[in-house]
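User: Let's play a game. I give you a shape written as tokens, and you guess the letters that built it. Ready? Here's round one.
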């Protein structure tokens, strides 16, 4: 049996994850009262039960005490129930943005509160559940498609998973260093395709720019060294429980060199078959060249 409990921050993507698990054939029950969890578990684990994949959604909407939820889950594990906890999260900044865009109140908001106040209360309530989580998914920078890929990888294809999402991000220094960057690398030491007329309006997603940037030996040497460094660092971040790593690669405008190298590093790490989430983002390609 596969028994998944989906919990985490309001606005972190719990409902979306539950719907995806339902699409994957899981029997899903959202916001089940704590008092019914053990009884529900008894029913689905009876010999005559035909349910082999189940998902329960737990959150703070009903004012549930999550210290009690942690005890209930611990009791289930002691009884040999293979409970897995999927914790959905996002940065406070992203959560605030999502609430403001939806114009909804945080479920723990009180009169006169800011959204941040409700978020802080919820993080405290979920502290013990977070420590117990088997998987932590930070959806701050995840597209719906990427989230589905991660859900399928863990709960459908049964692949090994570590709760680290590595985001290879290209950017332009002229637009500022990404505020969420953990590691920043400057590739402005490479010749700039911007000054080649036929390449000026292209980006590092185009073959012409890629061929030009990669024609310099320094490009290959840099990619070799950076790949080697990341392969050394990532297992350490996983051991320390980090669940998001943003590797920012910058050039002047974020159009040519950084995009080319971000694509290359992403391809190299993906080809290694790493047991961690991996995504590729180009922050400033949308800033069109004139």
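Assistant: Ready! My guess for every position:
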């Amino acid at each position: 049996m596969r028994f998944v409990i989906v919990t985490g921050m309001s606005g972190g993507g719990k409902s979306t994850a539950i719907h995806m698990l339902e699409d994957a054939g899981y029997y899903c029950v959202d916001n089940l009262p704590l008092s019914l969890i053990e009884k529900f578990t008894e029913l689905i684990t009876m010999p005559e039960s035909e349910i082999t994949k189940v998902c329960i959604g737990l959150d703070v909407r009903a004012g549930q005490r999550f210290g009690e939820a942690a005890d209930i889950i611990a009791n289930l594990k002691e009884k040999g129930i293979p409970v897995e906890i999927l914790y959905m999260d996002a940065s406070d900044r992203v959560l605030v943005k999502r609430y403001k865009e939806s114009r909804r109140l945080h479920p723990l908001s009180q009169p006169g509160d800011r959204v941040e106040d409700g978020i802080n209360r919820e993080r405290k309530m979920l502290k013990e559940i977070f420590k117990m989580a088997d998987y932590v998914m930070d959806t701050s920078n995840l597209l719906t498609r990427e989230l589905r890929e991660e859900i399928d990888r863990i709960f459908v294809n049964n692949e090994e998973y570590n709760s680290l999402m590595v985001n290879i991000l290209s950017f332009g220094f002229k637009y500022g260093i990404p505020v969420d960057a953990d590691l920043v690398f400057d590739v402005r030491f490479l010749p700039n395709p911007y000054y080649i007329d036929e390449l000026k309006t292209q980006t590092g997603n185009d073959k012409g720019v890629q061929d030009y940037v990669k024609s310099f030996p320094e490009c290959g040497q840099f990619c070799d060294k950076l790949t080697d460094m990341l392969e050394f660092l990532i297992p350490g971040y996983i051991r320390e429980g980090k669940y998001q790593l943003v590797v920012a690669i910058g050039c002047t405008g974020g159009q040519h060199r950084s995009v080319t190298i971000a694509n290359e590093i992403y391809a190299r790490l993906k080809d290694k078959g790493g047991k961690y989430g991996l995504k590729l983002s180009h922050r400033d390609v949308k800033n069109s060249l004139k």
